[in-house]
């Protein structure tokens, strides 16, 4: 009859009911051939059907003792079986057998402790297990644990991102986007502690007060933002460009201690800064005085002393007429 499997003891069993109650079953005929196989078992083994395959080509039992034929299987009724499907060799399964009156047998299988691994690998769902299967309870727990872990990961990611953003804001000058004095001090200490040679340049704008007095602080802010872009354009990604406050900027050139090259960079920065800066219908004009020093000038470089020396060289440039670069005299 369609929708049913062979009967025994005058009782037939619909396929749907059998598959629902035992989705990982094998039903063997008295001759040891597979009559039906549960849908989950077929899904795991990658076989459309086991029907007609002889016992010895389907599985081997290794617990409580080795069995390789139907006659041996029928002696294990009531025992807890450990077995392996040839189509699924990497997984040890568990099972129990019921011998039928006609000499055939029902073998019901389970995944045992490997259920979590198998579920993930073969994309099994709750519909692949019998409702009374203990694995279902485990899957609910795993699903809940997975949901909690995923939420925990998302929360950690958000917290990490928020922390990084807060740290970035704490190290950034909000007007120009450059590093601030705190970030500069961190970079200086790292260079000194790491015994890395570096050049230090102190840039102070000339005629900036006149811009503020003539056009207001909005114009001054625009000039500072343009200055920041110029300084970034004239330096490398590995350099630290910081706004020290007001119209003062400090640049740390990591690994660059060639005084002549730094002088050229300083003069190029001044030339760029002296270009007119549009502001509405007006034009802002500034220049810069620059003082610089090198870590190689010192037996034991000290950030505070180097900052002071660069500042002294800066004011020497201002006294000399502004718009100039001076190197500290050690």
From TrEMBL:
<feature type="domain" description="GGDEF">
    <location>
        <begin position="196"/>
        <end position="330"/>
    </location>
</feature>
<dbReference type="Pfam" id="PF00990">
    <property type="entry name" value="GGDEF"/>
</dbReference>
<dbReference type="InterPro" id="IPR029787">
    <property type="entry name" value="Nucleotide_cyclase"/>
</dbReference>
<feature type="coiled-coil region">
    <location>
        <begin position="145"/>
        <end position="172"/>
    </location>
</feature>
<dbReference type="InterPro" id="IPR052163">
    <property type="entry name" value="DGC-Regulatory_Protein"/>
</dbReference>
<keyword id="KW-0175">Coiled coil</keyword>
<protein>
    <submittedName>
        <fullName>Diguanylate cyclase (GGDEF)-like protein</fullName>
    </submittedName>
</protein>
<dbReference type="GO" id="GO:0003824">
    <property type="term" value="F:catalytic activity"/>
</dbReference>
<dbReference type="InterPro" id="IPR042463">
    <property type="entry name" value="HNOB_dom_associated_sf"/>
</dbReference>
<dbReference type="InterPro" id="IPR043128">
    <property type="entry name" value="Rev_trsase/Diguanyl_cyclase"/>
</dbReference>
<dbReference type="InterPro" id="IPR000160">
    <property type="entry name" value="GGDEF_dom"/>
</dbReference>
């Amino acid at each position: 009859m369609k929708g049913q499997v062979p009967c025994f003891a005058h009782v037939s069993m619909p396929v749907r009911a059998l598959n629902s109650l035992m989705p990982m079953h094998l039903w063997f005929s008295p001759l040891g051939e597979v009559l039906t196989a549960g849908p989950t078992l077929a899904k795991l083994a990658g076989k459309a059907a086991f029907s007609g395959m002889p016992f010895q080509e389907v599985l081997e039992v290794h617990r409580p003792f080795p069995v390789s034929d139907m006659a041996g299987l029928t002696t294990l009724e009531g025992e807890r079986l450990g077995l392996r499907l040839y189509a699924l060799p990497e997984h040890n399964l568990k099972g129990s057998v019921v011998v039928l009156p006609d000499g055939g047998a029902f073998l019901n299988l389970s995944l045992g402790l490997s259920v979590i691994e198998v579920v993930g690998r073969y994309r099994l769902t709750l519909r692949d297990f019998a409702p009374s299967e203990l694995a279902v309870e485990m899957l609910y727990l795993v699903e809940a644990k997975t949901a909690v872990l995923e939420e925990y990961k998302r929360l950690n990611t958000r917290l990490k991102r928020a922390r990084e953003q807060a740290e970035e804001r704490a190290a950034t000058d909000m007007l120009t986007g450059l590093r601030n004095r705190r970030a500069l001090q961190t970079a200086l200490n790292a260079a000194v502690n790491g015994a890395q040679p570096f050049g230090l340049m102190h840039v102070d704008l000339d005629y900036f007060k006149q811009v503020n007095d003539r056009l207001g602080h909005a114009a001054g802010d625009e000039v500072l933002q343009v200055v920041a872009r110029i300084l970034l354009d004239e330096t490398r990604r590995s350099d630290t460009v910081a706004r020290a406050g007001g119209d003062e900027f400090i640049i740390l050139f990591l690994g660059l201690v060639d005084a002549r090259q730094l002088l050229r960079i300083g003069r190029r920065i001044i030339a760029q800064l002296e270009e007119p800066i549009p502001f509405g219908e007006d034009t802002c004009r500034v220049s810069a005085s620059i003082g610089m020093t090198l870590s190689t000038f010192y037996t034991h470089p000290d950030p505070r002393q180097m900052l002071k020396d660069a500042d002294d060289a800066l004011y020497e440039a201002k006294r000399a007429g502004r718009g100039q670069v001076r190197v500290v005299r050690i």
